[in-house]
């Protein structure tokens, strides 16, 4: 969108807490605060001024988010077709009543780039890099363990993170445990079980800011994390990662198929791509099949530091 509209203001409607992350992409001018309980669609957007020239529905494939944008009366509305609404998107460049079809088996990156491309806006799903932040990391070259996630279904047990931390420490590797907002207790638990000093927990008591976490990951040797936000941030920064999956397949939410990333997943034979509840309270049974030994082996399989463990600044204006 930035490349297609270089002289326009690009506004992202999203929770206000994501403003710093949105700015880091270099592709968003401001965030319009918008959220609802339970990841729902807000009743209205607090938009002021003339209608937007273009609105893009990035929330999913349901009528509520599209209708929310339609009430702004944009010049163009870019969205996927949906069988439960007659208000299919229409633009000057496409025939009335036509829109691209939603695919349940499509990776998020490819899905949204396909949407834009269908409407004549070239988009590359592999253009993921963002510029590394300026602040120095308090733990350069460390292996970062991030045990938190916003749902229990995607949280690998603290004791297993601790086992990995203890094994890495015994090998002479520097290890830190990071905590986002509300995750300090979990991070301290991992450190205590692993016998790590309090100084190796980053983010206590209030949690790292986006900028703080980005600085740590940009200069990290590698990241071990569940299927949650910091995994995507590591991808955007070019940091090697081992990502642990349970209720949702890496094919839908995983990192790019590059040697610097390892996605671990043990589904049942013939399992669908979403075999569990991504927002469930208890660790998904597929996630629990991943062992500390497997994680250590995956870390060992990452490229040598000289080959790939030094993230470079991304191109100006690159997006996640």
UniProtKB/TrEMBL annotation:
Listed Low complexity bias regions: 86-95
**Gene Ontology CC:** cytosol
Please list where the region (Disordered) is annotated.
Answer: 37-66, 81-104
Note the PANTHER family from the entry. LIPOPOLYSACCHARIDE 1,2-N-ACETYLGLUCOSAMINETRANSFERASE-RELATED, TETRAACYLDISACCHARIDE 4'-KINASE-RELATED
- The protein depicted here goes by the name Glycosyltransferase family 9 protein
Please list the coiled coil stretches: none
- Species name for this entry? Peterkaempfera bronchialis
Q: Name one GO biological process term.
A: lipopolysaccharide core region biosynthetic process
One molecular function GO term is: ADP-heptose-lipopolysaccharide heptosyltransferase activity
Q: Which UniProt keywords apply?
A: Glycosyltransferase, Transferase
């Amino acid at each position: 969108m930035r490349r297609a509209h270089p002289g326009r203001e690009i506004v992202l409607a999203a929770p206000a807490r994501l403003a710093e992350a949105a700015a880091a992409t270099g592709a968003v001018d401001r965030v319009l605060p918008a959220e609802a309980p339970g990841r729902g669609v807000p009743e209205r957007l607090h938009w002021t001024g003339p209608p937007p020239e273009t609105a893009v529905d990035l929330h999913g494939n349901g009528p509520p988010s599209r209708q929310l944008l339609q009430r702004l009366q944009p010049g163009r509305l870019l969205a996927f077709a949906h069988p439960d609404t007659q208000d299919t998107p229409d633009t000057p460049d496409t025939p009335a009543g036509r829109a691209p079809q939603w695919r349940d088996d499509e990776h998020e990156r490819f899905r949204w780039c396909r949407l834009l491309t269908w409407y004549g806006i070239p988009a590359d799903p592999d253009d993921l890099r963002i510029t590394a932040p300026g602040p120095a990391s308090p733990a350069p070259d460390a292996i970062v363990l991030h045990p938190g996630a916003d749902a229990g279904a995607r949280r690998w047990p603290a004791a297993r993170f601790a086992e990995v931390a203890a094994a890495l420490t015994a090998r002479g590797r520097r290890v830190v445990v990071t905590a986002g907002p509300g995750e300090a207790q979990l991070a301290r638990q991992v450190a205590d079980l692993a016998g790590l000093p309090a100084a190796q927990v980053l983010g206590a008591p209030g949690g790292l800011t986006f900028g703080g976490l980005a600085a740590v990951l940009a200069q990290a040797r590698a990241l071990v994390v569940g299927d949650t936000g910091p995994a995507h941030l590591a991808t955007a920064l070019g940091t090697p990662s081992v990502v642990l999956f349970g209720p949702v397949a890496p094919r839908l939410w995983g990192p790019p198929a590059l040697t610097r990333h390892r996605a671990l997943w043990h589904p049942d034979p013939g399992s669908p791509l979403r075999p569990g509840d991504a927002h469930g309270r208890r660790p998904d049974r597929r996630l629990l099949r991943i062992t500390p030994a497997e994680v250590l082996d995956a870390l060992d399989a990452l490229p040598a530091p000289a080959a790939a463990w030094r993230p470079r600044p991304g191109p100006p204006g690159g997006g996640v």
